[in-house]
Amino acid sequence: MNSWLSQHWQALSQTLRQLVNTPLSSLLSIVVIGIAFSLPLGIYTLLGNLQTISEDVVKMPQLSLFLKLNATQADIENINSQLEEFPSIASFQFISKEIALQQLQQESGLADIASNLISNPLPDAFIINTQQISPDDLENIRTTIKKWPEIAHVQVDTDWARRLDALLRLGQLAVLMLAVLLSFALIIVVFNTIRLQILTKRDEIEVSKLIGATDSYIQRPFLYFGAIQGIAGAAAAWFFIALSIQTINESLIELTQLYATDFHLSHLSLQDSLSLLVFSALLGWLGARLSVAQHLSHIEPE
Amino acid sequence: MISFVNVSKRYPDGFEALKNVAFTIHPGELVLLTGHSGAGKSTMLKLIAAIERPTYGSIMVSDQNINALKKNAIPFLRRSLGLIFQDQKILYDRTVFANVMLPLQIRSFEKKTAAGRVRAALDKVGLLGKENAYPVTLSGGEKQRLCIARAVVHRPSILIADEPTANLDVDYAQSIMEVFRSFHQVGVTVLIATHDTSLLNDTRYRTLTLNQGKLVV
Question: How far is B40 from chain A (nearest CA, A)?
Answer without folding.
Answer: 14
